Amino acid sequence: MFGNFFHKMASPPWFYRISGKLIPWVGAICALLLLYGLYGALVLAPADYQQGDSFRIIYIHVPAAWMSLFIYVLMAVCGVITLVWRMKMAEVVLITSAPIGAAFTFLALVTGSLWGKPMWGTWWVWDGRLTSELILLFLYLGVIALHNAIEDRQTAAKAVAILAIVGVVNVPIIHYSVEWWSTLHQGPTITKLDKPSIHIDMLIPLLVMALAFKLYYVVAMLMRARVELLERERNSKWAKEMLGEL
Amino acid sequence: MSLAEFLNMGGYAVYVWTSYGIAAVVLIANLVIPMQKHRLVVARLRRRFRQEQNPQ
């Protein structure tokens, strides 16, 4: 069944049609989760015993940072599929994910800075975690710039795929940076297993926000992918038929 | 908890609300941009197809 699904997803007209139907539903679920997540984050969760209410930035910061890593890994996977199987849809997902990944990385950096100022007394330090996350932002921007710079579509796809794959080495560096190097950035604190473990009223909104951000990514990526597909396939029969019925 | 207390965020209002505000702007922009682009591309392609069907 999954094989069939992916086979269909690889077909541009099918992807365009199904994504058009999916977007409102996924968007609605995402909006509901976001509302509940924000309520939990700003109202239900108790203030932190050390950081007071400033810790509420975590509900944007951590899900954004998780997404910045998730999207990059997904782009690298798409890069492999592009190079090995030359699947057109993988190319489209790769390139349309880049601006969204860049947006999440930017948010992780900015909210981290806004959190760092009251807690650490500084907006920025050149430590492992912050520097490697900044490099991630440059990798995203690099993918976008490289894609725009190369005229020939096949060459551009290959170049971007290679950059995405090579850049993925940065992902484990970001993840383990707080354990490898001493730093101002706090270590892993979202845990139920170690002490001090996170309070359940703090944890639930965080997981809800993380899920909402993931669904947001699906919606934003599908919307961009549809535009990209229409432009690429503007001379195809399906595009003409589709626009006839719109 | 009063509304003023809520908005004050234990004295961290500037940092907390700026974070949430920037996130809102960035996330909304990332939906509006492809929406507008989609409308533009559809309009442009429609015009082209129409011209192809009835060339003057």
Ordered list of secondary-structure elements with their pairings:
The complex is a heterodimer of chains A (246) and B (56).
Chain A: H1 2-9, H2 12-44, H3 58-85, H4 88-120, H5 128-149, H6 153-167, H7 170-180, H8 200-232, H9 237-245
Chain B: H1 3-8, H2 13-53
Folded structure, characterized:
The complex is a heterodimer of chains A (246) and B (56). Chain A has helices spanning 2-9, 12-44, 58-85, 88-120, 128-149, 153-167, 170-180, 200-232, 237-245. Chain A is mainly alpha-helical and 246 residues long. In chain A, helix 2 packs antiparallel against helix 8 and helix 3 (58-85) packs antiparallel against helix 4. The longest helix of chain A is centred in the first third of the chain and has 33 residues, at 12-44. The model of chain A has no long low-confidence stretch (mean pLDDT 90). Chain B is mostly helical and 56 residues long. Chain B is built from 2 helices and no strands. Chain B has helices at 3-8, 13-53. Chain B starts with a helix and ends with a helix. The mean pLDDT of chain B is 90. Classes of the chains: A mainly alpha (246), B mainly alpha (56). Chain A binds chain B through residues 42-43, 47, 52-54, 56-57, 60-61, 64, 99-100, 103, 106-107, 110-111, 114-115, 117-118, 216, 219-220, 223-224, 226-227, 230-231, 234, 239-240, 243-244, 246, and chain B through 6, 9-12, 15-16, 18-20, 22-23, 26-27, 30-31, 34-35, 37-38, 41-42, 45-46, 48-49.
